[in-house]
């Protein structure tokens, strides 16, 4: 069975600073990897996804993520954070073939200081 | 193109009652999945429906059930509500790409259920 670990429950950064959110996964094969963002009281918005190929993927809102097979990681990065990036971020693994489902990490809450 | 639509957005129910939540997928999407989100357990998979059939099910009691209609809209029902069922219920839709469903899921805004 797949699992996802997001080691950081809460991260605070200053506006304009760089950001890296960590994600480690466990799965027997190469999984489908996703990062979603959730604003308070809202649903999940897909930021980016990795299926295969180039291990550095670009997403919306200036985010990128790098897949590292050797470390079972899929960390999310942004070079310069904006106040509007304050939200909760979820890493997810998609796997299971005909029993496909998304397995999510516990999330990382991002606070942005002015 | 409209996104995934969930109704109602908010519900308050009394313990022991039952509740039905609705989800309309993105036009053309044929799969609907349901997830429960709570502060303690996080996001957990409930079940998925495709072509009116349950395709996969998570580890939830039988009080949680669902169905899908021919227009791909889905409903989720929870019977005999417990306080612990208070949560944000999210549904997601996936597109069918001729041989299988796409792996990318698009989520709705959720239904906030409060059980008192």
Question: Could you list some keywords that capture this structure?
Answer:
heterodimer; A: 114 residues; mainly beta; six-stranded mixed sheet; four-stranded antiparallel sheet; B: 116 residues; seven-stranded mixed sheet
Structure description:
With 114 residues, chain A is mainly beta. Chain A has no helices and twelve strands. In chain A, strands 2, 5, 6, 10, 11 and 12 form a six-stranded mixed sheet that branches. Chain A has a four-stranded antiparallel sheet with strand order 3-9-8-7, with no helix packed on it. In chain A, 0% of the residues lie in helices and 53% in strands. Chain B is mainly beta and 116 residues long. Chain B is 0% helix and 54% strand. In chain B, the strands form two sheets. In chain B, strands 2, 4, 5, 6, 9, 10 and 11 form a seven-stranded mixed sheet that branches. Chain B has a four-stranded antiparallel sheet with strand order 1-3-8-7, with no helix packed on it. In chain B, strand 5 (42-50) and strand 6 form a beta hairpin. Chain B is globular. In chain B, 37% of the residues are buried. At the A-B interface, strand 5, strand 6, strand 10 and strand 11 of A face strand 5 and strand 10 of B.
Radius of gyration of chain B: 14 Å
Low-pLDDT windows of residues of chain A: none
Order of helices and strands of chain B: EEEEEEEEEEE
How much of the sequence of chain B is in beta strands? over 45%
Helix content of chain B: under 10%
How much is the average pLDDT of chain B? 95
Distance between the termini of chain B: 37 Å
Number of helices of chain A: 0
Oligomer: heterodimer
């Amino acid at each position: 069975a797949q699992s996802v670990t997001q080691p950081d429950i809460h991260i605070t950064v200053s506006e304009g600073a760089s950001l890296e959110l960590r994600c480690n996964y466990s799965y027997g094969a190469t999984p489908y990897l996703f990062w979603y963002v959730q604003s308070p009281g809202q649903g999940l918005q897909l930021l980016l996804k990795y299926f295969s190929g180039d291990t550095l993927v670009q997403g919306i809102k200036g985010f990128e993520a790098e897949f590292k097979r050797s470390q079972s990681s899929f960390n999310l990065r942004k070079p310069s954070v904006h106040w509007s990036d304050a939200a909760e971020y979820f890493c997810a693994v998609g796997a299971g073939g005909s029993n496909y489902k998304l397995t999510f990490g516990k999330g990382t809450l991002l606070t942005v200081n002015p | 193109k409209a996104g995934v639509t969930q109704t109602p957005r908010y519900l308050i129910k009394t313990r022991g009652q039952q509740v039905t939540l609705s989800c309309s997928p993105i036009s053309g999407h044929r799969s609907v999945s349901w997830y429960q989100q709570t502060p303690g357990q996080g996001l957990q998979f409930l079940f998925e429906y495709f072509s009116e059939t349950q395709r996969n099910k998570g580890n939830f009691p039988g009080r949680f059930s669902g169905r899908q209609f021919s227009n791909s809209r889905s409903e989720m029902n929870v019977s005999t509500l417990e306080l612990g069922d208070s949560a944000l219920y999210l549904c997601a839709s996936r597109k069918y790409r001729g041989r299988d469903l796409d792996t990318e899921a698009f989520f709705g805004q959720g239904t906030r259920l409060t059980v008192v």
